[in-house]
Design brief:
homodimer; Helix Hairpins; globular
């Protein structure tokens, strides 16, 4: 089991690598005869979105190599640990593996140019087997679907009726023919109005003819955008939080159950759990990396903490607190360690060092560092203003780099002082400090690099690095009492949102794969279908120079769909694809589906998640008091 | 006091009329020498946004007339009811009145063409004095401001750092000069990126030069739009619901306190509240219109309901239930009344009528009506398809109108049957029935009207009317168990959201008034400042034909700002105004402020309100059980 735990990262990395591999593979519309299309129409170029492609053979080898890793671990697990539920649905996983291997062989059979590839879709399923949090996130999103579609039905009917009315009223108006010429375009225009994608384009065409029609659109937008879409979000929020509450309750029940089983095992011999039993348990736990720091004294302490009624045995109820107690232990441990105390005990106890340590822990030290940071930001501002006004010389850049180095050394000194007085583990526990740590070393490297002979090419890198410093400003916020709670929310939010953002990425990835299969190679500058003289509908696409929005490869396609989701709906690319694709205006359903899935469902889930987390954090404020109270109680023992 | 209650509507109507008057007044940039500007540049025309203007004298008279009404009531209230707190802050209100009268005089002193008008801003304050719900809504939004600005600070800093980085990196790129040429435009572009207004315009300019820069923008948008803006909403939601909970608690406390005082008054004489006391109380209450239906038998019933322990006196705790009991009484009353029973008691008790009434109340009757409705919608679909394909003849229109008449009569029959069997009050209690009632009569009128000789002009009206029928489809949803809860939410949501939407209207109104004062008359077709050849920045405005977006009068200005809010931020109009206004690019702050106030604060409050209401409705499901339990208990007595 420990082997599985320790190799979990290898498996997960292999899955991620497989998905990223899709971005470096040749799109399936390319062939040796018909080269991949670059946007500028030079079909020889392969740098569609600037991503370098891997040629068929190394691609095949890499693909097989990653698959081999996954399959090896899969077979190992099923052979040596048949009883444990390591893989959910092992049969489905083995099916998936065979499909992926078949796909790899199939690609090589076509010498790297297959007419159609299933791999991206299959690969998108892999993370569900390997990332528990992503699986949870998927079930949460699926739980939202049912109430979501109830509202969507109402929204769709509402859009249908509005589109119908508007078409009936305006289909005779030549200026609005493009938007409301017939029922199909009318309904589509009503839909795009609701997404506010082209707003206020549709209405402009109509407004010149009939001013009161503005009121009709106004009512539609008010009801649709401000009412229906908000109700949609409310429904998603309600379903999402409801699901999450159920999940937490179920998890707690599971934990109680498992701990109950463990307790039964421990009490098998003599019916009670005493100190030696717990010691035995912890000897086992110590084999697991996470708990390897535990020593005998701590076991004793933990036992005392668990044994609330002080009868030298642990009852079943007391045993259920073991997980909390295990986490508590770390806090206790961290409070005891300081490297100076550990390695130079004699020096640690001198009065001089104690004063230094006290000063470092004091507020005035932190103020001094904050002042240094502000001065540093002002220097950076000055430097970049000189850069923007083209007043900088190689000499000035050197001087600034030297100043930067000075600042970097101050920060390193701060870091050393802090770790020496608090201990590294405690320093590292704070996310702000981790950020400081990374930025400090990066900036020192950058500053030293800038001191080297100055070339124009290096400028961009130096610019990025210098401005990284400004991000340190955010750590200042964490120190202001007004912002402390907000920053705390962000430190919880960022790691907690990872599964949802991964899901968002994967969802777009699947849509992109489908888009590249269907619409790859359609968008290029001299495509006759994209001439505004032939087709009035693509003038916005061409006029705005949206050529980089295309499905000519995975990277470009992903970016196109991401842009669509961010602005809710992008009519321009939908029209351009509809004009060039052999599916005609049916392709718009692809973008409408993308809107529903990614803009409405996934984005609203992200929103629901953030609101839920924020509200929870607010409620937790009281719980935290209890926790710190608990810590205080156990610390005194 | 009753007089005040009964004239409340007159006051409120006068306030609304005063605000609407602003839309029909000449904008202050107009003068007899320099006519108001119409979009097409013909300065003679006054129909800027199609709204007819009232000339100075009648405008003055109407203004004074409305003010006189309000001031009359104000003086009456302060003279005859000095003790009651009818007007909050009477001093402020009298100041406001004097300012408004001064403004009216000042306008007439300039013969209707004053250089500047304060009236719209002053008028916007009036509703706060006259609409209690709007005042509550305003305090709720003000309560949100404090935590809101904490997050906005972080968003602003984030935008600043990103804009700075992007400007530093891309200011040398000629293609991106328009967006990132200097620090000011760079920061502004970063801001518009974050609003996703021009997305993906800014990035397109940059993408052709450096593909990896897409990742920079991607990170910015991901963090900014999906994280920070969601946190912004979460903060608003949290603050809004927190404020609302406090409000409800405070209201309940107020009610307890007032009822306690009333109880003290009733017990002054003999120390207990008995049936005669309650009778006396209800005699007083009967003078108020709302409770005029009460008779002696009901008083008796109510007394029994209140006296829970059955000792013929009402204790203090029991008295606190009086408000709930008063509302309960109405339900009891409604259940007893049926017009047939009341007016034709002998007929009511015949078996035939009882069967009819039973059938009307049965499910199969409702199914039949639903089927008729669906057939009707299909007929409407057929009719409009013929219309769209230009296959309709005057004769076919007549035939369809006749069919429509037939359907209308069926609906009227249904209405009559329902009211006869249930009683009108009970029928009217259901929002769905009210909607049916209004639509049915309107459609009958429309159908009869269409039977009259057919002219092309009438077509549009008939089209609207026929499609109104489709809105009846929504009443079908209410009958499906799957959608019942949703429809219920909507019936609560629509009336409850009125104050918030009024606030939204007023907030836009104030911004519009400022916009018309500052930017009135700037946007017209042959304005040299709006020639794309002179100014590259206005090409989007001119290219999209956005001429109807302007501040040439109140109606157009309101519509312009509304459009801005709907799409979060409209760069096109901001650029056009900046190009024409004497304030130059400072005018963009006006639009940025509008974005912060209306797009971020007010829109997010609307969203918070909808989510809060939805979550509350969900929790109420349990409470409702208790209420119906209560009703059952009292109904049996």
């Amino acid at each position: 089991y420990l082997f599985v735990e320790n190799t979990r990262y290898v498996r997960q990395l292999a899955v991620i690598a497989l998905i990223l591999l899709s971005f470096f593979e040749l799109p399936s519309y390319c062939s040796p005869h018909r080269q991949c299309v670059a946007v500028d129409g030079t079909s020889a170029s392969l740098s569609l979105s600037g991503v370098p492609y891997i040629s068929p053979l190394p691609q095949f080898l890499f693909n097989i190599f990653l698959l081999a890793i996954l399959i090896f671990f899969f077979i190992y697990d099923t052979l040596y640990l048949p009883g444990t539920a390591l893989h959910i649905h092992p049969k489905r996983l083995s099916l998936l593996f065979s499909a992926l291997v078949l796909d790899a062989v199939y690609v090589i059979a076509f010498a790297g140019y297959p007419p159609f590839r299933l791999a991206p879709f299959l690969r998108a399923l892999l993370p569900l087997f390997y990332f528990h949090s992503l699986r949870e996130c998927t079930t949460a999103i699926l739980a939202v679907l049912n109430p979501f579609f109830d509202v969507v039905t109402i929204v769709a009917l509402f859009t249908f009726i509005f589109g119908w009315i508007v078409t009936l009223v305006f289909h005779d108006v030549p200026e609005a023919d493009r938007y409301f010429g017939n029922l199909v375009t009318g309904l589509y225009s009503a839909f795009t109005s609701l997404t506010t994608a082209d707003w206020p384009m549709q209405i402009m065409a109509v407004l010149d003819v009939s001013r009161p029609s503005a009121l009709l659109f106004l009512a539609f937008i008010l009801i649709g955008v401000l009412m229906l879409f908000n109700v949609l979000l409310a429904v998603v929020y309600n379903a999402y939080t409801g699901h999450m509450e159920d999940l937490v309750v179920r998890k707690l029940q599971d934990r109680r159950y498992s701990l109950g089983l463990a307790y039964d095992v421990l009490t098998e011999q003599d019916g009670v759990v005493t100190l030696p039993d717990v010691r035995l348990l912890f000897d086992e736990l110590r084999k697991n990396k996470k708990h390897s720091h535990m020593d005998d004294q701590q076991t004793q302490l933990l036992f005392t903490a668990l044994d609330r009624d002080g009868d030298e045995t642990i009852s079943r109820d007391e045993f259920l607190g073991i997980v909390d107690a295990l986490q508590l232990r770390f806090v206790l441990e961290l409070e005891n360690v300081s490297p100076v105390e550990r390695f130079f005990p004699s020096f640690y106890h001198t009065e001089g060092w104690q004063n230094v340590a006290k000063y470092v822990r004091s507020k005035s030290f932190s103020y001094v560092i904050d002042m240094v940071m502000i001065v540093n930001v002002l220097v950076v501002l000055l430097e970049s203003t000189m850069d923007l006004r083209e007043k900088d010389t190689p000499k000035s850049v050197l001087i600034f780099a030297a100043i930067e180095c000075g600042f970097s050394f101050v920060y390193i000194l701060e870091m050393v002082a802090k770790t020496a007085s608090q201990g590294f583990d405690r320093y590292w526990r704070d996310y702000g400090n981790r950020f400081d740590f990374a930025v400090t070393w990066l900036l020192l490297a950058g500053a030293i690099y800038a001191l080297y002979p100055y070339t124009e090419n290096d400028r961009t890198i130096v610019r990025y690095l210098v401005l990284l410093r400004c991000l340190r400003l955010f750590t200042l916020f964490a120190k202001m009492p007004r912002f402390r709670k907000l920053v705390q929310v962000f430190t919880v939010l960022v790691p907690a949102s990872a599964p949802l953002f991964s899901f968002f990425f994967l969802s777009l990835y699947v849509f992109t794969a489908a888009g590249v299969e269907m619409f790859g190679g359609l968008i290029y500058r001299n495509n006759p279908a994209l001439n505004p003289d032939n087709n009035q509908l693509v003038d916005a696409f061409v006029g705005n120079d949206y050529w980089t929005l295309n499905f000519n490869d995975m990277a470009a396609g992903w970016y196109t769909l991401f842009s669509s989701v961010i602005v809710a709906y992008l009519t321009e690319i939908a029209e351009a694809i509809a004009a060039t694709s052999r599916f005609g205006s049916w392709t718009k359903w692809f973008f409408i589906l993308n809107f529903v899935v990614n803009s409405l469902i996934v984005s609203n889930c992200v929103l629901a998640f953030v609101v839920d987390l924020f509200v929870m954090q607010d409620e937790d404020d009281e719980d935290e008091l209890i926790l710190s109270d608990l810590q205080g109680r156990y610390g005194s023992k």
